[in-house]
């Protein structure tokens, strides 16, 4: 599963000593959201094709696909319930813990990702920030009834064994890993574009008639 290969690995084992470091304090939060979006879209797209099974995560499963995409949803949360990089990176840590549950591992897909995000950000904001917003505000921003969000919060905590503590070192590792993943993805996309360009160039060359040289 994609969420195991990208989220469940130990970040420290993936990073070389020369890898770029994620600046938790100064890295633009909007850019963090963009990187997070690319990763989550890749995971949800892969998992959408897998056969669904009945799990304890049914509380997060929407009846229909949300009309708002992941990036717009995250940016909406940032706009109306501002929080730092730590809150968004913590989603990866929490999702990892939930995906490593041997009895009922989390499978992120397009039907549950939005509810997982709003519940996770709300919980992490309460942990990392001295001042945080009410559940009613998060519910309005997330497009959910307050009662439902309250239930999602409790379920999210339960699925994390009520352990929401994240060491700063672990957040740094996840930030480094996310940054490296983004760099590798962009590098792969660039190489793919170059390959496609060269393929089209060679095809065009093969279609051209041979040049004839006329002398005097």
UniProtKB/TrEMBL annotation:
Domain of life: Eukaryota
Molecular functions (GO terms): cyclin-dependent protein serine/threonine kinase regulator activity; protein kinase binding
Gene3D superfamilies found in the cross-reference section: Cyclin-like
Single GO BP term: cell division
Any GO CC annotation of this UniProt entry: cyclin-dependent protein kinase holoenzyme complex
Family matches, as InterPro entries: Cyclin_P/U, Cyclin_PHO80-like
Keywords, sorted A to Z: Cyclin
PANTHER family xref list: PHO85 CYCLIN-6-RELATED, PTHR15615
Family: Belongs to the cyclin family.
Protein name per the record: Cyclin
Source organism of the structure: Parasitella parasitica
Name of the gene: PARPA_02744.1 scaffold 5218
